[in-house]
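Archive transcription. Copying these from loose printouts into the bound notebook so they stop getting lost. Printout 1 of 2:
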Amino acid sequence: MSKNRGVVYLEPGKVAVQDIADPKLEAPDGRRIDHGVILKVLSTNICGSDQHMVRGRTTAQQGLVLGHEITGEVIEKGSDVEMLEIGDIVSVPFNVACGRCRTCKSQDTGVCLTVNPARAGGAYGYVDMGGWIGGQARYVMVPYADFNLLKFPDRDRAMAKIRDLTMLSDILPTGFHGALRAGVGVGSTVYIAGAGPVGLAAAASAQILGAAVVMIGDFNKDRLDHAAKVGFTPIDLSQSDRLGDLVAEVIGTDEVDSAIDAVGFEARGHTGGEQPAIVLNQMMEITRAAGSIGIPGLYVTEDPGAVDNAAKQGSLSLRFGLGWAKAQSFHTGQTPVLKYNRQLMQAILHDRLPIADIVNARVISLEDAPKGYESFDHGAATKFVLDPHGLLNAA
């Protein structure tokens, strides 16, 4: 293993690629773990959730190695790893999960009870998620490897579709979870808030689930243009402050069967200022009676940069009475990636889901990660994929 390098959070608005320690088969508290593997990171993506931290909107500490969307090659394994071999190429769910606790056994791996002493749920390179070192790096350690890792069946076939398969670690299962939880099925009318990568992944998921109409709303013209280019119906939110009217222009009624919030707590309204509850309230307004709302967009328990004291504690001004009156269902929380990633891998390998093109994936070097963060922060209609070893473009 050569010297490790990783993307490190320095302060609000600033990341840098620095030398970091080589990974060891150790837990964050220093305990030896023989159920883990060391991966050579083949691809690792910049996520909107990372961007929240980099903007200073969480309690992330200086020095945090970022990155929870990881695809890699096994180069070392512990003595308790039985199902994986050196050289296997694998997808890493962003959830760190033990596979042994009550929630893991029910496939609710997003809220594993053992990998994070602070709360339910663990993740790589993320604030308050257990201290697991992030994977925007050349090498990374993954615990509970037999349980967590999805092995690709054929190395050459995997490398040929690596730009698509790299999306299995987070945004594609997250978008799929949002669509499934929103009750999307054959003939559904669907509205998705946010035309970023997760919103586009939700739209692609709605499409393969059989939706009749898939609308995506945003203020960002470039992202709306790309959404239209890949086959979805763009909703330009700058055209009206009444979302139902914009929806009615497309489907003839101001209510949809299913709504998906792919924006989260940094949502903005027509004034340009932050309104952290606006998307959730709009979802309740435009979703039909007894309809469902999927919420893969991130909401946090602490937001130092929030617009008011309540929002700083994750308290939002919701019209919950409206949702109750309409008997709507709300589904929140981190996506349990293991519940979906194998099926979605099959869809990719058999050419049913060209997700890299749908989210406009762009491969850049690990050293260019700060430029990728800056561009993404300015609203680029792109999903940035980091290539730590220069292997993706060759593939």
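Printout 2 of 2:
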Amino acid sequence: MLSKAHIQFIKENIDSQLTELVLKGFPFEDVDASFLAQQISARQRMKKKLPSWIAKDDVVFPPKLNLAQSSSEETANYKAKIINGSEVADLTGGFGIDAFALAKTNKHVIYTEKDDSLFNLVHYNSTVFELKNFEMIQTTAETFLKNTKSKLDWIYLDPSRRDEAKKRVFLFEDCQPNILSLLPILQTKCDFLLMKTSPLIDLSYGIKELKYVRKIHIVAVENEVKELLWELDFSNEEILPSFKCIQFKKGKQIEFEITKDEASTEVTYAKPLQYLYEPNAALMKVGKFNQLAESFQLQKLHPNSHLFISATLEKEFPGRVFFVKKVEEYKPKQLKKQLKGKKMNISTRNFPLMAKDLIKLFKTKDGGENYVFFTTDFNQQKIVISCIKAM
């Protein structure tokens, strides 16, 4: 797909402005200029998301929309740790990031994709990566499931979250393929299913609709939830699932698994102590905090504040940790004089006003090393906690 001359041109212009390149024109008649522009643009944008793909000069990248819908290498490799079997299929192959990762950890991987251009592009890239255990079938997930005679160990699905008008959707029944309509046949074609969905999906809704969920993986990157991964075991219906919270931050992977029922774990409440803890985005999505408090021997400020406290530092806490400098009652008149014009990061937890309202009210500037939490303690007292990051 790319000649040596094309590759050299891309390398020489990797830091160039695309608009300037297009205006100057591309020195090739054997390839479309928009295709080369697409390759340069992708390599400029995907350095962090797909580093080992960028490292290979002859990898070809798809259009922007396909790239945006693809997993990152970090999250793809995480899925490959979950899925372990002799016969595995990715039935919504797309650009192939997940399928290529699965090929590293499984004996035989089947990739399916209905789109001609994507299928051909992935076929080419599979030769670049020298995949030997990789079978490709150009078809839909529905057709594959209907025609295959084999029972697989695992199937992976990442339903498209765009409708026919290219608008975003997220409910199971609105995605393509519709996982709810496929569940009966999937039960007969694999032992386990891993499905990626939008972070917007409500967890209780997913558990109710999918029925066979044994574990939900909540995957966050730089404190933003990027994926929900639903792990289904078709041999066990209506089980109580566990929740595995994964945070990828600055090259580090932080995990915390919630296996207990909230009601079985007691939590104590106290006023602010030396250290304040804010759970990461993955844990906030789950919304179950009692086991977290128990595991790290922390106390809570309030049942609904979701902020934790301790007298000693817990370095392994999965989230942000702050050193408390000052705690005071919420008195707006006094705070106006105190905070006006100062630079700080304002957050609210279980508080009647939003952060943007407080910034406007107190005329503060956003940013800096100071963090201020407006919250409510277990005595229903509105308080203000001033902190700096502990680590």
